[in-house]
Structures
1.
Amino acid sequence: MQGRRNVAKSSYIDVGLLFSTFVLIIIGLIMIYSTSAYEAKVEIGDSFFYFKKQLFATALGIVALIFTAKFDYRRYKSMGRLALIVAGVSMFLILTPLAYSANGATRWVKILGISIQPAEIVKIAIIIFLSGFITRRISIMDSNKWTPAATAVAPAIFSFLILIMTSNLSSAIIVMGIAFVMLYCVTKSPKQYLILAGIVLVFATLFVLAVANEDKLGWDFGYRGDRVRAWLNPEGYDSDEGYQTLQSLYAIGSGGIMGKGIGESVQKLGFIPEAQNDMIFSIICEELGLAGAIFVMALFFVLIWRCMFIAINSRDLFGKLLVIGVMAHFAIQVILNIAVVTNSIPNTGISLPFISYGGTSIVFLMAEIGIVINVGKKIDV
């Protein structure tokens, strides 16, 4: 009898997690086609071009999800260093002829005709590595003040590499954000992390103030300064840095409560460049309205909530940390994307998980969902 009960517990599948994930993926595919069809037809001659590529990547993502859902998550504990090595090699491929650029940024490598974004590999590698690293040192996490600092070394190095090699600030922030959340969740006295967050906020505020007074100070903050100025005054930079933000806000405002209807967006007709990428949420607002936007955000809430449920009920610390890392990744990326689209923060170029166009992203996001499912299969409910 006891044996049958254990078998039942070890086969738990979180329906809410799967439902929210696949509904988001379906919405993403629909919106990628709706958003990109005009541009793809004009520039490539095939209105289904981006949709077909995303559909193929989604199929690969389902394979990745099935694999990681079946692969015992406890085996990742000894694979942390290997994960970092793979992530490091993928990053340095940016310096080889395999790398290629798009929209002025070199963030991808092409292997056997398949485009890969190394930053996505880094995110999952950091989650795996930190989960094992913290688990092995949890007994001294609070007593040894240098242990948290040592834990942050790997994510700090990779964040720096992402920033200098790909100019991808958003991914660098996400990697450090994942580490911060994982450390915060296992520390008995999290005051030091709250102080650190306060310090970061102060420096960010000082940076914004310095950019706003750049002329008086006689400093030049380069293109990052341009983005901050466009954030503060998008109308004043409507022909360059503020253009995309303004068009995004026009799309959001014109959608109203119920939206114009799928396929009826005006802003996607060349006004928002490559709207199927980072700014796809603005087209959701335009075509599906406030109601559609709230529905999408509710799905993300359910997904993150179910991750939290599995983390809380996981039988072991390593499993908890894996799920916390994945949950942090999703939450940070969703918050940053929506904040950028609504001009709540400067434009950092960040995709909306499961919805924005991006092959590497969807494959690794679904692999992370598979890891969460795998941990969830063994929880006590």
2.
Amino acid sequence: MSYMEIGMTLPTMVPGFDRTGLLKWSRRIDAGPFSSLAAGERICFPNTEMMVTLAAAAAVTQRVRIIPTVVVLPIHSAVLMAKQLATLDVISQGRVSLAVGAGGREEDYRAVGASFDRRLARVEAGVQRMRQTWAGERVVEGALRPVEPYPLQGAQMEILSGSMTAASIARAARWADGICGFSFGPSIQETETVFQGARQAWKEEGRDKAPRLVTSCWFSLEGDERSQMDRYVHRYLQFMGEAGAKALAPLATTTSVKALKEVIGALRDVGTDELILVPTTADISEVDRIADLIG
């Protein structure tokens, strides 16, 4: 049986997450058996901004990798994002990995004045621009200096692709170090299909190194596990409409220690390199429950 790392996402999408919660969760994750600390990005939602939140988490942790999951790259200036990520790498002393993707929420694009067109192509171009920036290339003709600071890890800092479809995986094989997906259930069959597609795409692209295979799922182990999960998923997916949010909530089944143990074992068996868990509550005891489960 292969080894699988387990990371933890900060509950930034949960109501009431604040400075106190940020400090408690960050320190507890860093002290636990977790491989990484992650946070996601949304614009039209009452969550704390991803990069600011992760910078604060990086400053109060020492060990875990810091992972933005995922940077919706087409809504950002690639050069400014490169500078932010390099700064985060400096603050964390070289602990940053990241996932990038195109996103699917048009309202977030409109909110920041970004075009929703040609998103996959713009992700690929943005990654190339970030690596050029990290390598010290002049991004403005005649500029006196390149854009700094540089990442402590250098221009080849790990970048995963938030790819789930065959077309986006094929594109990602040209530039990504692996993939970072998400599954509602999670569905082991869906995850295995995505992973097999990535392995094949990397092989067809002639990549020397196999893709790093990362996935995520929601979980709820709090006292009213099922209702807690339903409330969270319904709230999070309201951008899909009331009917869509209600229909999808029951698909999330990791609402018991037994179910989560089974999911962890099954994902390990299909070759997952890392599972990044996404909490549905800001209750700090959830970190302890997972630590006990996997520790």
